[in-house]
Amino acid sequence: MASKGTKLAYWDEAVEHLKANDRILNKIIQQYEGEYFAATTQGAFSTLARSLISVQSSEARANQVWRNLVHLCGQQPTVQCISARTVEQLLAIGIAKRKAGNLIDLADHFEARTVNPKKWSKMSDQEVINELCQIRGIGAWTAQMFLIFNLHRPNILPLEDARLLKAVSKHYFSGEPVSRFEVRELADNWQPWQTVATWYMWRSMLDDAVA
């Protein structure tokens, strides 16, 4: 949750809107004054490839496998590098068989342009999510994380995210279980900046995690 790097262009406007429209979120934002998540310039393919490798893996394991893949490709993994590899070659560097198949499927979609980053700027959030979910191993949650952290879409509400549900439960429902419907209803006040509100919800739980 570090604040190094370039602040997203819409961040300050979003913060002012959220502070004015949500009393509880206003207090949380004031706790973390000056913090934000920074814009990333990492390419779409390598971001998605790393997401596929990281699913259901420990951070240490995912990092090691990613280093192995970078070494195999001689650079950040590209469509061409993955397309030129067999499942067996990916297995040899520690990638599980299912994930190896998913990586090759990802490369196939990019090669065939059934997943085409050049079109995303003209597509709605849901259209991009639908396109990404064609790829084996990528579901709605992974697609939403990609829209938040890579495409920097400002109004994403990841209702499948356990951290978000836990934070809303803590701050708005006195720790009682909360439904996705309740979170969606509450988050109407956050529009059109649900991404930024979600980040502050996550940030508020980070202190609990390290306490």
Features:
Endonuclease Iii, domain 2; mainly alpha; 211 residues
Characterization of this structure:
The chain is mostly helical and 211 residues long. The chain folds into two domains: 10-38 and 157-204, Endonuclease Iii, domain 2; 44-150, Orthogonal Bundle (Endonuclease III, domain 1). It contains twelve helices and no strands. The protein has helices spanning 11-21, 23-31, 44-54, 59-73, 79-83, 87-91, 97-112, 125-132, 140-149, 162-172, 180-186, 194-210. α1 (11-21) crosses α2 and α10 (162-172) packs across α12. The protein is elongated and about 55 Å long. The model has no long low-confidence stretch (mean pLDDT 93).
In CATH, what is the homologous superfamily of the largest domain? Hypothetical protein, domain 2
For the record, the CATH class of the largest domain is Mainly Alpha
Question: What is the helical fraction, as a range of percent?
Answer: 55-70%
Give me the secondary-structure category: mainly alpha
CATH arch. level architecture of the largest domain: Orthogonal Bundle
Overall 3D form: elongated
InterPro entries: Alkylbase_DNA_Glycosylase/TA (IPR051912), DNA_glycosylase (IPR011257), HhH-GPD_domain (IPR003265)
Pfam families: HhH-GPD (PF00730)
GO molecular function: alkylated DNA binding; DNA-3-methyladenine glycosylase activity; DNA-7-methylguanine glycosylase activity
Keywords: DNA damage, DNA repair, Glycosidase, Hydrolase
